[in-house]
Write a structure and sequence with these properties.
single chain
Length: about 575
């Protein structure tokens, strides 16, 4: 096409105007559909944000956030509880071992008493023989024979009682020692297991609580980004009215240039005055069309980014945290059950130990009574030996046998004194054992369990709160999953929105090519055409109907020949209207 053929130039401009009009009509319907779709998506994002915020608020609740310290307190209380039981059991084992030694001593005492009882019985028989031999002279020693006989019977009975109780007690104590020796390693293993299990449970609860708090927050951040993108798309598309006006102004400019070409001011040959203005007008419209193209490209990019982000949004992680936390709550609860079972076992064990060690008090009572009787026997033997020696001395040589018997009684009295002293030592050792046992058994008292029970109650309450929070999070997460699926389904319904907008504005590209070709032809036919127009006049002519500051900026860039700046995606639409 030659520029001199004005009819062809006018036809090209009118065709371009018509194509822009057709494009504008198509774009209007598509833009409305896209705007409605993204407005719906904005509603879904608000729903998601509210759901995620509810979960975060639930997790940040003080009752839920306190679960970890309370479980840690429970773990510490359980370790103290078991440690005290271990220490107490070790102390009891030491007490039992000491009692075994004491019982052996008492067995020896019983053996010594039995030997003395036999000796006294033999002396009683000898005394009766001597009394019979002496006749009337020895009648005074009949009392000695009777006392020795009574002593023999009394000591024998006392010895049998002590031996019987000692032997029975030794059997029981040996069994206790056997059980405790086997029990201590098991208790230590139980303590080690509970410490490991509680440590693992604490670590998992900590991880679960972190996931419970961080995942919804991360999800919310992701959705907030998408919400911002959706808001940008909605704002840009809602601002399409400005772009529409920009397209209309390009059409008006084409009509104005075409009109000037039909009715030239000076029809002389060569470059006529309307040609420089037409050239400047074409340059301005090329810049405006490029700006429109860049704006639409930004929209398409923004829409594409937003759609990709929505398709990537998944509530699967959020949906999964509720069951995970519930599982950990069950794990911690199972540890509570284990601790409670151990506590009940310990209490039953304590009752058994107390009942068994109660025999130590009975032994103490028996030895105490035996000690009193032993002292009485010792004193009576001493007195009996003293009186017998004096009486036998009065009779002279005929009572030598009685004197020998009396001296034997004196020796028995001394031996019995040693046994009494041994019984006294045994009594003191028993008192010490009872004292030690009472101190050790404090670890098994109800008061010693109070801290553990308080920790159990607090942890159980905290676990109830955790369970409630996890169930709430699970319910909210299911709603979030449904909302994300709706968003993704709606995006699938919208289709390739960016491509759709590109296709709608495709005619603009064709018009831009035609107009750029027309301008190049003018430059070829009239090399000085771009130097012969008045910029101020051109600006007044073409900017009269402009309604945005952006159009004026683009016009000035075109008149100065400055390249358009590189466009950036915007979240706020086009420039504001001037009026």
């Amino acid at each position: 096409m030659r520029v001199e053929t004005r009819a062809e130039v006018v036809a090209t401009l009118e065709r371009a105007k018509g194509e822009l009009q057709a494009m504008a009509r198509t774009v209007e319907s598509k833009i409305g559909m896209v705007a409605r779709a993204f407005e719906g998506l904005a509603g879904h994002t608000d729903t998601l944000l509210n759901l995620a915020a509810a979960i975060v608020g639930c997790v940040e609740n003080e009752r839920v956030s306190s679960i970890l310290p309370k479980v840690q307190t429970l773990g510490a209380a359980a370790r103290v509880f078991i440690g005290e039981r271990l220490e107490a059991t070790t102390g009891i084992l030491e007490t039992v071992t000491a009692e075994v030694k004491l019982l052996r001593q008492l067995s020896r005492v019983a053996g010594d008493q039995e030997a003395i009882a036999l000796e006294i019985k033999a002396l009683s028989v000898l005394t009766n023989i001597e009394v019979a031999r002496l006749g009337a002279v020895g009648a005074g020693f009949q009392y000695l024979a009777s006392e020795l006989s009574n002593f023999s019977k009394s000591v024998t009975e006392d010895t049998k009682e002590l031996a019987s109780h000692t032997d029975g007690r030794r059997v029981v104590i040996e069994e206790i020692r056997r059980v405790l020796s086997a029990e201590l390693p098991r208790l230590r293993e139980e303590l080690a297991r509970i410490e490991v299990d509680l440590g693992n449970a604490l670590a998992v609860v900590d991880s679960s609580l972190t996931q419970l708090s961080s995942t919804p927050a991360q999800f919310r951040t992701c959705v907030e980004d998408i919400a911002q993108q959706i808001a940008g798309v909605v704002a840009a598309i809602q601002a399409h009215d400005i772009t529409r006006q920009q397209i209309e102004h390009v059409q008006e400019a084409f009509a104005l240039i075409a009109a000037s070409m039909r009715n030239p001011e000076n029809p002389e040959n060569g470059a006529v005055p309307e040609l420089p203005r037409a050239y400047a007008g074409l340059t301005i419209q090329i810049y405006q069309l490029r700006t429109i193209k860049e704006t639409v490209a930004n929209w398409a990019s923004q829409i594409g980014t937003c759609m990709s982000g929505i398709l990537r949004v998944s509530a699967s992680d959020v949906v999964g945290i509720g069951p995970v936390v519930l599982e950990q709550e069950r794990n911690v609860s199972s540890q509570l059950v284990q601790i409670e079972m151990l506590e009940r076992e310990s209490q039953a064990y304590s009752v058994r130990i107390q009942r068994t060690l109660g025999g130590l008090s009975n032994l103490m009572q028996l030895v105490s009574e035996h000690l009193q009787r032993s002292k009485s026997v010792r004193d009576r033997l001493r007195l009996l030996a003293f009186n017998s020696i004096i009486e036998a001395s009065h009779l002279g040589t005929q009572a030598d046998a009685i004197l020998a018997i009396s001296k034997s009684i004196k020796g028995i009295s001394a031996a019995w004194g040693q046994i009494t002293e041994q019984s006294g030592h045994a009594m003191q050792e028993i008192l010490n054992l009872v004292k030690q046992t009472n101190q050790v058994m404090e670890a098994f008292s109800d008061a010693s369990n109070e801290r553990l029970r308080d920790a159990q109650v607090e942890t159980r309450g905290a676990l109830d709160n955790l369970r409630t929070a996890a169930e709430f999070a699970a319910g909210q997460a299911r709603q979030m999953k449904a909302a994300t699926e709706k968003m993704q389904a709606q995006i699938a319904g919208v289709g390739k929105t960016g491509d759709l907008l590109d296709a709608c504005f495709g005619c603009g590209d064709a018009v831009l090519v035609e107009v750029e070709g027309l301008r190049r032809q003018l430059e070829t036919d009239y090399p000085d055409v771009k130097e012969r127009y008045d910029p101020d006049e051109v600006e007044r002519l073409f900017s009269a109907s402009y309604t945005t500051e952006m159009e004026r900026d683009v016009l000035r860039l075109a008149l100065r020949g400055t390249p358009l700046p590189v466009g950036q995606p915007t979240f706020a639409g086009n420039s504001v209207e001037l009026f």
